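Progress against Task 2.4 (sequence-to-structure conversion) is shown through the following example record, which the project officer requested during the mid-term review.
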Amino acid sequence: RIVHVLELAGGVMEELGNATGPRMDVLNSHCLDFMQSIK
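Structure tokens generated for the chain above:
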């Protein structure tokens, strides 16, 4: 479970560091996954 959360966090960081700017749909899907995984 922890690994999955870390992967999600990594994906979010990668998206925020994206040169073209973060894509909100990608961030939203990461957030939804995150909320599901910590329940």
